[in-house]
Amino acid sequence: MNFGIIVFNQVEELDFIGPWEMVTMWRKVAEGPENCLIIGQSLEPVICAKGLSLNPHVSFASCPTLDYLLIPGGQGTRQEVNNPVLIEFVATQAKNCNAVLSVCTGSFVLHAAGLLWGKKATTHWGSLNRLRVLRDVTVVEERYVQDGNVWTSAGVSAGIDLILAFIASVAGEEAAGKVQCSAEYYPSSITYGGFENHGQAPAYIKKPSF
């Protein structure tokens, strides 16, 4: 099996590094996909949102048929939704994929490729209203959302939760548990500064007031 993750300039680092870590851990401890490929439009280095420089494994032209495809988010998605080469690659690969996934504003790339029309989806809390404006998407304020073979998640770190839920769905809870344990991913429930009560924060992270 081939699991592909597209990267582009100004992609948010944790949007793809978190899922990449979980998928490669899945391969290591629970017979996950044989290949987890970082895919660029070309083989030129990609400069991420916080300055990380990344060399893709394959280009669009050399990428094999994928079983699963994930689109991360970040400021770069604002340009990539208007990149016909990337959108065509996503739409074409998706035809053969068992599932397509997005993290953060990667949902807008899925939408541009026609993959969110009539679907339930989510995105980074700061872009929920932008997604609502598209009207042909039902926006759900959850950490991650599955609608058929399309999975979307909230911002940045939510991609880790997305992938663990996805692994549980396709390979079973034991496989997901092995990955979670090996990665020692047991997030603390502590919050800092009260920012979970930000006016635009999605409902699932807001603490009830008494």
Provide the domain count: 1
Oligomeric assembly: single chain
Second-tier CATH architecture: 3-Layer(aba) Sandwich
CATH top level class name: Alpha Beta
> Mean pLDDT score, rounded?
96
Along the chain, the helix and strand elements come as EHEEEEEHHEHEHEEEHH
What proportion of the residues is helical, as a percent range? 25-40%
CATH topology: Rossmann fold
Query: Can you summarize the main beta sheet?
Result: 7 strands, mixed
How many strand elements? Answer: 11
Helical/strand content category: alpha/beta
Q: What global shape is seen? A: globular
CA radius of gyration: 16 Å
What is the rounded distance between the termini?
50 Å
Classify the beta-strand content into a percent band: 15-25%
CATH superfamily annotation: Class I glutamine amidotransferase (GATase) domain
- In the sheet with the most strands, the strands line up as 5-2-1-6-7-11-10
Query: Low-confidence runs (pLDDT<50, min 5 residues)?
Result: none
Task: Report on the architecture of this protein.
The structure is a single chain. The protein has 210 residues and is α/β, with parallel strands linked by helices. It has one domain: Rossmann fold, CATH 3.40.50.880. The protein is built from seven helices and eleven strands. α1 links the parallel β1 and β2. The protein is globular and about 45 Å long. The N and C termini lie far apart (50 Å). The relative contact order is 0.16. The mean pLDDT is 96.
